[in-house]
């Protein structure tokens, strides 16, 4: 099995744009005490609140967004459309509400459901609001850096589903692994192509 190490807190204490790009290729791991699930991150979106009108934190510090204003390296999990959970990584220094939405994973272990799209990702990884505020350097939900991983060709585009944000919707703050068929907008699906980790 590939040896992995965990980033230091300082990895997360940077701009969401930097972290969103550098999360591509890293692993998200969830150990719920029964099953250990692991996936390779292949798609992210950066949100730079409070000025970024697409960020939840643009509405100010609320009970919902409190985690985004806290220390970096924690999980911000929110619920949308009465059905889906979405997982974000809190970044930047404390008090600066930046976050990175995890949009898609390539399954590596313990994952059998679809993982292309933020809601599907959370369902497959068994991530829900109970994990809101979880320390991503902890022992239940965390990020890992695999050793000897191949270099990733990273694509960039505008974010998805934020047309309401006006000019902010045009910022190219979505990042993805060009080679992965697990990216949410890919025209190919896992049955049609070789996973990027096997390349």
Task: Explain what you see.
The chain is mostly beta strands. The protein has one domain (4-198): Methylpurine-DNA glycosylase (MPG) (3-methyladenine DNA Glycosylase, Chain A). Helices cover 10% and strands 30% of the residues. It has helices at 9-12, 16-22, 118-125; strands at residues 4-5, 27-31, 36-48, 75-80, 84-91, 98-109, 141-146, 154-157, 174-177. Strands 1, 2, 3, 4, 5, 6, 7, 8 and 9 form a 9-stranded antiparallel beta sheet that branches. The longest helix is centred in the middle third of the chain and has 8 residues, at 118-125. The model has no long low-confidence stretch (mean pLDDT 94).
Question: Strands, helices and their partners?
Answer:
Blueprint: E1 4-5, H1 9-12, H2 16-22, E2 27-31, E3 36-48, E4 75-80, E5 84-91, E6 98-109, H3 118-125, E7 141-146, E8 154-157, E9 174-177
Antiparallel strand pairs: 1-7, 2-3, 2-7, 3-6, 3-9, 4-5, 5-6, 8-9
What would you say about this model in short?
The protein is mostly beta strands and 199 residues long. The chain has 3 helices and 9 strands; from the N terminus they run E-H-H-E-E-E-E-E-H-E-E-E.
What distinguishing features does this structure have?
single chain; 199 residues; mainly beta; 3-methyladenine DNA Glycosylase, Chain A; 3 helices; 10% helix
Number of helices: 3
Number of domains: 1
Q: Strand pairing plus helix content: what structural class?
A: mainly beta
Distance between the termini: 16 Å
Number of strands: 9
CATH architect. name: Roll
Strand content: 25-35%
Q: What is the rounded Rg?
A: 16 Å
**Overall pLDDT confidence:** 94
CATH topology: 3-methyladenine DNA Glycosylase, Chain A
Order of helices and strands: EHHEEEEEHEEE
Residue stretches low in confidence (pLDDT < 50, at least 5 long) are none
CATH superfamily: Methylpurine-DNA glycosylase (MPG)
In the CATH hierarchy, what is the class? Alpha Beta
The biggest beta sheet is recorded as: 9 strands, antiparallel
The 3D shape can be described as globular
């Amino acid at each position: 099995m590939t040896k992995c190490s965990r980033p230091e807190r300082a990895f997360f204490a940077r701009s969401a744009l930097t972290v969103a790009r550098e999360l591509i290729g890293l692993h998200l791991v969830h150990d719920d005490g029964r099953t250990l699930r692991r996936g390779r991150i292949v798609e992210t979106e950066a949100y730079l609140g409070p000025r970024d009108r697409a960020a939840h934190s643009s509405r100010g510090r609320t009970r919902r967004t409190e985690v985004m204003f806290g220390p970096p390296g924690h999980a911000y999990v929110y619920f949308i459309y009465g059905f889906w959970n979405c997982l974000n990584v809190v970044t930047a220094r404390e008090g600066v509400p930046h976050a990175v939405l995890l949009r898609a994973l390539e399954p590596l272990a313990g994952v059998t459901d679809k993982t292309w799209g933020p809601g599907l990702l959370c369902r497959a990884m068994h991530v829900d609001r109970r994990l809101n505020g979880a320390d991503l350097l902890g022992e239940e939900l965390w990020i890992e850096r695999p050793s000897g991983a191949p270099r990733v060709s990273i694509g960039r585009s505008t974010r998805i589903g934020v047309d309401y944000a006006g000019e902010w919707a045009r910022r190219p703050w979505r990042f993805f692994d060009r080679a992965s068929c697990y990216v949410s907008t890919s025209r190919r699906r896992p049955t049609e192509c070789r996973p990027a980790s096997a390349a």
